[in-house]
Amino acid sequence: MSHPSPTRLVGFSATPTLYRIVLTEKEDVYLKCGADILLNGLNTNLKAEARCPVCGTITRFNVTDKRIEDLAPDNPILHVVEFEMSPGHLGVECKSTHIFDKKECLNKWQSTYAGKPGRVMSLPEYMVSLKQRPPRKVSPA
């Protein structure tokens, strides 16, 4: 599978963030939120790292042929805020979309979170939902 130009990736960030993908051995790309990793995984195979916004633990995994593989730790949780841009087209609000390494970190973050309600699910569950209805990404709200 060919790799897109980093600047054409969904959620590309020119500065370091909590979310990083590796497209080739010499090419790291930072993304704006956890969902961006999975959105890009719809179009290319990649290796990913997500740093928990609460405790800083790094979750590593691969997306191969639109499937999540090699999760470590093995049960990270995604909190994603989606919104309808137009009929049938969803966007993701990056400032409220994160990957947590464990439920306790999600709970701690949610205890002070005052934003829009989001969906909470495993990374494989979200990937399946994306394959059924790929959302369109917009700039972080």
Spatial strand sequence of the major β-sheet:
1-3-2-4-5-6
**What is the overall shape?**
globular
| End-to-end distance | 31 Å
Please mark out the parts with pLDDT under 50 across 5 or more consecutive residues, or reply none: none
Q: Element order, helices and strands?
A: EEEHEEEEEEEHEH
- Given the structure, what is the number of helices? 3
- Secondary-structure class: alpha+beta
Helix content: 10-25%
Percent of residues in β-strands = 35-45%
Arithmetic mean of pLDDT: 88
The count of strands amounts to 11
Largest sheet: 6 strands, antiparallel
The radius of gyration over CA amounts to: 14 Å
Question: How do the helices and strands line up, and which of them pair or pack?
Answer:
Layout: E1 12-13, E2 19-24, E3 27-31, H1 34-41, E4 46-51, E5 58-64, E6 67-72, E7 77-80, E8 82-86, E9 89-92, E10 98-100, H2 103-110, E11 119-122, H3 123-132
Antiparallel strand pairs: 1-3, 2-3, 2-4, 4-5, 5-6, 7-10, 7-11, 8-9
